[in-house]
Amino acid sequence: MRVWKWLLVLAAIAVVIVAALKCLRGSGQPDIRWVEVTRGAIEKQAVATGTIGPEFEVTVKPQISGIVSQVFRRMGEKVAAGEPLVKIKPNPTPFDSVAAKRGVEAAKLNEERAIEFREGENLAARLMGVMMGEKEMQRQYEQARLGRVRAEEQLALLKQGKVIMDDEVIDSVVTSPIEGYILERRVNVGDPVDALGSQGGGTVLCVLADMDTLVFRGTVDEIDVGRLTEGLEARIQVGALPNCLLKGRLEEISLKARQRDSATVFEVRLSLEKAEDVVLRAGYSATANILVQKKEDILLLPERVIERRNGVGFVQVVLEKAEGAETREVKTGLSDGLMTEIVSGLEEGDRVLERTYEEIE
What we know:
By secondary structure, this protein is an alpha+beta fold. It has 6 helices and 22 strands. The protein is elongated and about 145 Å long.
């Protein structure tokens, strides 16, 4: 009885081993997968990364120094050319006020002296008129008169913050030079400001821009820049607006490279078509896909199923009637890295075997 029990145990163990070997042999056979040659379109693109912003910005500076007494517009508002932005209250130092008053007094004395010489009111004036001539005496008088007018204008500007010089109004109210939007407002009520043309170049009151004309500024890698030409179409994806896809056109390509994160890149500028029902803000990060080349109604095959040997492409084509597959040489064309154009060697509807990981390695 014991012998028969051991025989049964050994038989059960043998059955388990045989089943395990069959399972292992079956799991080692790879699944046969294939893809079909289809007809479609393919695009070759160059990628540029950058930001969206206005074509140009205008910085506004005051004509007089002083203290900001009133701010008329807020950041983000649209203004027309000539609309008031900021009002400046003159804040001259005591030294400036005294100097301006003394300047007016000195200028008046010079004008009076010039009148005396021009009219010949005394012997010295008559002798001077004989020596220099009537025209020269009139010229000196005009210079003295202009000096007096200039000194009075400077004093009025210090006191009132407004003066008219040669039909040009120099006012303490700073107006907008263009029609556009206020991108930045850098001053508040009570802030001191310096006039344009001062030693520091003048205080920037605000920054204006025409947000109806936007451009994309970015960079492309040196590998792609050789394929770019002005006028190419592009699609711009805004990072903050996933559903917003803008159309653009390549306008400028820099001739000089620059280094960015150990990479050589070239700057590009693209014009943008006006977007409807979307608010674009200056500084939005964006990615531009510049269309370098496009082909339509061509045979396509995934790049991964093509084996390259010395620059020649080969695929495994599934046979229709016989079992197995045959190796076939194919001529390829345009590729976007995922799909490849098939120029010859295959027809639409042909089935091509997927490559295994061992083959790819």
